[in-house]
Design a protein that fits this description.
The complex is a heterodimer of chains A (about 110) and B (about 120). In chain A, about 0% of the residues lie in helices and about 50% in strands. Chain A has about 110 residues and is mostly beta strands. Chain B is about 0% helix and about 60% strand. In chain B, the strands form 2 sheets. In chain B, strands 2, 4, 5, 9, 10 and 11 form a 6-stranded mixed beta sheet that branches. Chain B has a 5-stranded antiparallel beta sheet with strand order 1-3-8-7-6, with no helix packed on it. The chains are: A mainly beta (about 110), B mainly beta (about 120).
Chain lengths: ~110, ~120
C-alpha cells in the first residue's frame, strides 16, 4: 500500500512558468486536500475536495487551481508561478471529511520559484 | 477566523528528559484537536482529541484537552533522539452548515531536538 503519493518531489520554476503538482491515493478515500507549509507558519489549506466531483477553496487559494480527476487523483496547478509560491506542498486524504476522519499526508513536493 | 498557537516554538533537551508541548486555540464551534509528528517528510498522525479531560496515550506520548481553557498539551516522557521532530497541533471547527469538511487549522509547530 503506497498511501498518498506526490510527484514531483522537487521542482524549480522561473517566475511566470506554470506547472501541475500531482497527487494520488490508493486508500479509497473520499476527501483530498492540498496544503502548503512555510517556515514558522505551520500548514495552510489551499484547496480541498470533500468528494469526487467537488472542490472548494481553503485558506490561501489565490494563484492556484485544482482538479479532482477521479476518486484517486487530485492535482494542483500553478498557472503563473511567483516567488511567493516557493514552499513545500503536501497533499492529504481522508475517508470522509464530514465525520472528521484522520488525514494522511503524502511526502511533499518542494517548489522553488526564482 | 480559527487560530492555533503553539509554544514553545523550539525546544532542546537531552535524552531521558520529559517535555510538555502546548497548544492553545480559538475556533468557532470546536469539533476536534489533532496532534501530528513531522520528521523529514509527511506529518504523521498521533492523537485526535474531542472530549475534555480524557487523556490519550501511546507509549511515552500522551495528550489531554481542556475545552474550557481552550488548550491541549502533548507530553513526551523519557525522550529519545528519535523523538526529534516538528510537532504540529491542528483544530477542526464546524461551519454554519454543521460540517467540517476536514479543514484543519494548524499552529506554527514546535521544533523538538533531543540530544544524546
Amino acid at each position: 500500500n503506497a498511501g498518498v503519493t506526490q510527484t514531483p518531489k522537487f521542482q524549480v520554476l522561473k517566475t511566470g512558468q506554470s506547472m501541475t503538482l500531482q497527487c494520488a491515493q490508493d486508500m479509497n478515500h473520499n476527501s483530498m486536500y492540498w496544503y502548503r507549509q512555510d517556515p514558522g507558519m505551520g500548514l495552510r489549506l489551499i484547496y480541498y475536495s470533500a468528494s469526487e466531483g467537488t472542490t472548494d477553496k481553503g485558506e490561501v487559494p489565490n494563484g492556484y487551481n485544482v482538479s479532482r480527476l477521479n476518486k484517486r487523483e487530485f492535482s494542483l496547478r500553478l498557472e503563473s508561478a511567483a516567488p511567493s509560491q516557493t514552499s513545500v506542498y503536501f497533499c492529504a486524504s481522508s475517508q470522509q471529511a464530514r465525520v472528521q476522519e484522520t488525514q494522511y499526508f503524502g511526502p511533499g513536493t518542494r517548489l522553488l520559484v526564482l | 477566523e480559527d487560530k492555533v498557537v503553539q509554544s514553545p516554538l523550539s525546544l532542546v533537551v537531552h535524552e531521558g528528559d520529559t517535555v510538555t508541548l502546548n497548544c492553545s486555540y480559538e475556533v468557532t464551534n470546536f469539533r476536534s484537536l489533532l496532534w501530528y509528528k513531522q520528521e523529514k517528510k509527511a506529518p504523521t498522525f498521533l492523537f485526535m482529541l474531542t472530549s475534555s479531560g480524557i487523556e490519550k496515550k501511546s507509549g511515552r506520548l500522551s495528550s489531554i484537552l481542556d475545552k474550557k481553557e481552550l488548550f491541549s498539551i502533548l507530553n513526551i516522557t523519557a525522550t529519545q533522539t528519535g523523538d526529534s521532530a516538528i510537532y504540529l497541533c491542528a483544530v477542526v471547527g464546524i461551519d454554519a452548515g454543521g460540517t467540517s469538511y476536514g479543514k484543519l487549522t494548524f499552529g506554527q509547530g514546535t521544533i523538538l531536538t533531543v540530544h544524546p
